[in-house]
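SEQUENCE WITH STRUCTURE:
===
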Amino acid sequence: MALLAEYRCKATPARRVVEVYDADAYLSEDDAMAAARTQVVAGNGYHLYLLSLQPDIDVDVAIRVWDMAPDPPAEAEGHVPVSIESETGVLVVNQLEYGPAGEMTLPRPGVYEGHAWWENRQAMADYYATTLSLPAADTFEGHLTQAWDNPPVTERYVLDLAYIREPEPVDDEDQ
């Protein structure tokens, strides 16, 4: 297996969600978002929703394109199979409240399949809850900012993908 391309960024999971989608597929999808609540990562073909257990501490998002997608690592906290179609060849990592965190240019437009896996999701949720439960004081907000900027673990989501086929042709009559 050869790694063909890799992109990494930090994103704030506002409303506990980070979204990955094709640059032209910016409309959200309620059914896929609901599925992410039980699967952690779910999509509708053009969107993937990554569901964190906390809304304020940045998470790492990595998109890796392989010649053949590897299996998720054994130490991953969880994983699910994923598929995403990109007609433009550009994937956007979006923060619901704050807008795009970044974008990746894929090796070529098309349908990509593989796995999403994550680590430290529960550990970050526990840390988040602990920092919120500390006694309030005049410096509480400053304490939270410092605590959230320097967490002891990094919540991480990785999309390991491989090109499968060309994108579906766009029907000009639908536009």
